[in-house]
């Protein structure tokens, strides 16, 4: 009898400084099939040795040690090529333009709605 191995979970980087939001988002995404590597700031995410292996990035815009826009620029400069979603509690037309120009596929307003986040990750 041959047993098949389950398909590997797609790797996702999550960076959010609010512990409660980070944990609830991590649990949601894990429950939907992602292998989530969660970080509380830019420095710890950039120090993660598996950062370039991730297929997805979900990042908060305002972080204690940087911002999501510069974070994505740093990842792209290192060769990361995945789908990125930016989240913020302070949306604006200017931020939307900057996020798109930086390589984010979607800008989501906090508080996050699960179906919007999952839809943003599923959309090619």
Residue-averaged pLDDT, rounded? 95
Please tell me how large the radius of gyration is: 14 Å
- Overall, the morphology is globular
In CATH, the homologous superfamily goes by the name: Response regulator
Which series of helices and strands comes N to C?
A: EHEHEEEHEHEH
Structural class category: alpha/beta
What is the third-level CATH name, the topology? Rossmann fold
> Any idea how many domains?
1
CATH class: Alpha Beta
Q: Spatial order of the strands in the main sheet? A: 2-1-3-6-7
Share of residues in strands: 15-25%
List keywords for this structure.
124 residues, alpha/beta, Rossmann fold, five-stranded parallel β-sheet, 39% helix, globular
Structure description:
The chain is built from five helices and seven strands. The model has no long low-confidence stretch (mean pLDDT 95). The strands form two sheets. Strands 2-1-3-6-7 form a five-stranded parallel sheet, with helices on both faces. A two-stranded antiparallel ribbon has the order 4-5. The protein has a single domain, classed as 3-Layer(aba) Sandwich (Rossmann fold), CATH 3.40.50.2300. 28% of the residues are buried. The chain has 124 residues and is α/β, with parallel strands linked by helices. The radius of gyration is 14 Å and the shape is globular.
Q: How are the elements arranged and paired?
A:
Blueprint (H helix, E strand, L loop, with lengths): L10 E5 L3 H13 L3 E5 L2 H6 L8 E5 L1 E2 L2 E2 H10 L5 E6 L4 H10 L3 E4 L4 H9 L2
Parallel strand pairs: 1-2, 1-3, 3-6, 6-7
Antiparallel strand pairs: 4-5
């Amino acid at each position: 009898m041959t047993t098949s191995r389950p398909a590997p979970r797609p790797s996702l980087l999550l960076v959010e400084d609010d512990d409660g939001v980070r944990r609830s988002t991590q649990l949601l995404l894990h429950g939907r099939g992602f292998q989530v590597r969660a970080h509380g700031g830019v420095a710890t995410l950039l120090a993660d040795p598996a950062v370039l292996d991730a297929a997805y990035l979900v990042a908060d815009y305002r972080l204690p040690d940087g911002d999501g826009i510069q974070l994505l620029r740093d990842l792209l400069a290192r060769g990361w090529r995945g789908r990125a979603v930016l989240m913020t509690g302070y949306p604006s037309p200017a931020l939307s333009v900057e996020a798109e120009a930086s390589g984010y596929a979607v800008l989501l307003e906090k508080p996050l709605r699960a179906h919007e986040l999952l839809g943003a990750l599923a959309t090619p």
